[in-house]
Structure formats: structure tokens, C-alpha cells
Amino acid sequence: MLNKMKFRILSGKKLIFILFIVIMLNLFSAEFIVKDFKEQPNDIELQRNPVRDVNREYAALIKISTDLIPFSFQTNIGVVQTEKKVGEFWAYVPSGTTYLIFTKQGFNKLRFAVPVTVKSNTVYTMTLGSKGYGMGIADEDLVQITFNLNESDVYISKDNSAPIQKKEKLIVYKVPKGEHKFKFFKQDFNEIIKTWDFQKDESIQITLERGQTTTRMKLPGFIDISSEPAGAEIFIDDQKMGVTPIYIELTAGEHKLTLRKSFYYTYNGTFELAERETKTLPKIDMKPKFGYYEVTSNPSGANFYLDNKLLGKTPVNRKKIESGTHLLKIEYELYHPEEKDFVINDGDDEKFEFDLKPAFGELILNSQPESGADVYIDENLMGTTPFSNKKMPSGNYLIRIEKELWMGAEESITIYDGQKIEKTLLLTRNFAELKVIANNSRIFLDDEYVADNAFSKKLNKGKYRLKATRDKHNTAEREIFITPGNDLEIELKPTPKVGSLSITSNPYESKGAEIHLNDLKQKETTPAVIPLLIGNYNVTIKHPKFLEQTKPVVINENEQIKLDFDLVTYEGSMLS
Known about the structure:
Helix content is 6%, strand content 59%. The chain has a 5-stranded mixed beta sheet, with no helix packed on it. The protein has a 5-stranded antiparallel beta sheet with strand order 34-33-36-37-39, with no helix packed on it. Mean pLDDT is 88; it is low at 1-10, 16-28 and 132-137.
């Protein structure tokens, strides 16, 4: 019997312990909050992209705006399909769905009763937020209200709370969105009581006028507020009063106290201060709302984004991060970006390692039978063959090579991640080689001087005109047609422009006299007929028994000139 009693006592203790754990888990768990749920009759998403369920019935679409992804989603009659979007979670559900069920680690399960009848092929929107232990109203639901007063030392009461006297003329409140009543009063001034509906941050001018106040002024007291860690923002009755630690003179009465600090849960409490009382509140331990994370990547130096904000480059050494759901994204040029949804619970220490996958391959291009061809990739000139790019972004490209005198080639290619593509493109000959010989002549191609005596060049298909010129010669000309692959060798011979000179000498005994043209002895002797190039000549006749004699002559083309020389002996010249 005693053993049975011990067992029952132990079982009771275990049960109490288990119940305590369950209560604490619920107490420290966050909560899902649905802020709105609306039908969107003008959204045509399902008209463009309808989705059917297993019964071939058209599904409804619920677009959920949230930063709590990932989470598990179900309905009371199942789910057709889901999609993750940027900042949204799309759920396709059967018509007639009445409950949406959300579960997530660290959160209490939410079974949300849909407030409308879910119809097929209809789009709905909802906003899903969260509320955690000690958070009070989430900061995104608070608005900042700034009052600009024309007087100092004014008492202000919000929503019938105990009034607070402020020496400053600029007063800041952080209040939940919605209607709030404020009362402003000061000795010897008329009271101002007014209600506002606040939906956004506002700045309001308050002008007090002299008169009578009906509100009894309570004597103040002093309140001493401190926190661990220090530096928390203090709001008393939603009015900002400073940061901890602080010693404040405050109107007597019951007050709401709120402490806020980055990376810590918001503290909410109340205290009562009697007239002329000096009260020191126990030091408030702020509950940590953060963990730690660090990020490395291969390669390093990648841009890293936290919740869509660029914060720097990897590696990221151990840093503090607020508890909750976050999105980490890593980007590096020529590598595939990676992103990760993750949840930081209080005290977590997470390490993220990203091995980025290349978004490039290697491209090598050659040309035959000649290198040096221009390389175009998607119509952009990138270089000449041989061409290589070890980090060519993956994708589809049109490559083309071109070279003067050759017909180019093009080809479509695909670059795959981490692979090497090597291509050889063939150039087609679009020229013939021309060789021209014209001894002692100037050579012209299409009336442009190109060389003396000999000339060679590769020419494109087409018609050309060759010309060779030489002094005192007729120009040699020829028209040619170049056909690719058919080389040509041409000889041009300018023909001389000539006349003739008939030379005789008298008396008969002078026969055989030497003939000199421009001081050059000729092989012929008198009498003789000598063909000559056109031009001016000095003709000299020399004979050992006669005095030499010179005459000028002009030779024209196809003209025959006769010169007779009457020579005189030495004796005859002396007699004369």
C-alpha cells in the first residue's frame, strides 16, 4: 500500500512538472495574428491561370502577405497546391473551406475561422503577422505622435490615464493605431480635450489659451526606473520619457510603463505613485530577443542580403540578429544566387555556409585556315581568333567570325555551367591572288599607283583595271575579273613610241663615219637608218679625215627624219 502511495505521489509530481513545461512553452511561444481577410473581385489571376482540385472543380486562391515563411499550412478540407512568392504565400484551396490552419516551430497553432464563404475561382487576400511573449502590440502597429506645445510644464493625460507633467514643449508618444483621447491642462489655462483617430505618424500643434482649469492638480512624486541592460527607451502612458536608468518627477496616480530596446522583448507593466512619494522600481531584466549568425561563401566576397537589405560581403563574422523569421540571400557575379529562409530563436547561434554554383563555362574559338578573324558574340565584337573566355556566362549565344577577303561563318552555341566548349569555325576563301609583272614600268590598279616592276595582292571577287606606264612608251592597259580561287599572273609591256633617223655623210670618202647620239656612240655608221624613241637628240658625225659635225634633231612618233652632213677635211677648213 505504501509503495502504491509513493507511486501516486511521484506520478502526481511528474504530471505537475509536465503541466508546468506545457504552460511555460505556451507562455513563451509566439502567436499568429490575422490582420485582415478580404475578397478581391477585381483580381483576375485565376481567370488567367485557373487551378482545379482533384474533383476537377475550380479552386479559390488566398494570397497571404507575411514575413513568417516558412510555416505549415492546412485547411479543414485539404489544400490543392501552394506557391511561395516574394513576401507572399499563395494557397489554392477548395471552395467551401471554413478553417485555415497554421503551424510553425515556436508558435502556438492557429485555427482561423474564415469570415466569408470561400467561392471557387475567386481570389482572397489576408495579412499574417505575429505577436510574441512580452512584445505587447507589435511595433509595426504603433504610430508616433508628436505634440508641439506653445507652453511648457503642461499636464497631459491619455485615454483617462494619470496626467504627466512635461517641462518640454515637444512631446512624443507611441500609441496603437486607432482612436485616442488626450487632455492638456495647466494652471491658469483653459483645458483642451480632444480625440484623434491615428493611422500614421503625425505632428500636431497644441495651443493653450489663458483661462481657468477645473482639474485638481495632484502633488507629484519621484520614480526611479532602471533596466538590465541599460539604455532601454521608457514610455509612461505611451509618452516617451527618456532611457534607463532615469529618475523622473511624475504626477501621482497609476501609470502604465513600457520599455523598448532593440534585440529585447518589449516590457509592459504598471505602477502606482502616491503624492510626494519617492519610489524605486526593482531593476527590470529585459528578456533577450536575439540570437547570432555568421555567413561564409565559396568564393568569398559575395554580396549578402538579410531580409532583402544589402549588408556587405562575405564572410560575415558572428553578428547579433533579432529572433524571428529571416531571409538570407547570397549573390556573386557569374554564380547562381542562393537564398535561405531561416528562423532564429532566442539564444540560437547559426552558421551558414554557401558553396555557390558557377553560372559560367569556358569558351574557346578557333578559325581555319587562318587565324586573326574577328569574333562577334551576339553581334558584339569580342576579340580575334584564337579566342578564349574562361568565365563565359551560361546561356545561348550566336557566334560569328569575319575576316577581310574571307567569307565568315556563324553558329549557335549553348554554354553550360562548369563545361568547356571548343569550336573551330571555317573561313571560306573569297579572293584570288593577282601577280603583275611590268619591267621598268609603274603599275596602277584602278588608277591608283601600287608598285614598280612587279606587284601582287589578294583581291575580292570583282572587276579591276590594270595599267603600266613608262616614259616614251605607250601605256599598257588591261581589264581583269577576279573569281575566288582562280589566281592570275599578268605581264604588261608598254610599247615604245618611236620614229626614225636617216643619216648620210658627204663626200663619198666620209662613208663609214661614226654616229654619236647625245654623246653616245652608236653601232651604226654612215649611211644609216636608226629607229629612235621620240625626243630631242644631238647627232654628231666623226671621221678621222674630216672635222666632226653636230646637228640637233627632234624625233616624233612615226616620223622619219633625214640628216645630211657635208664634212670638211682638215686642209679644207684651213684654206677656208
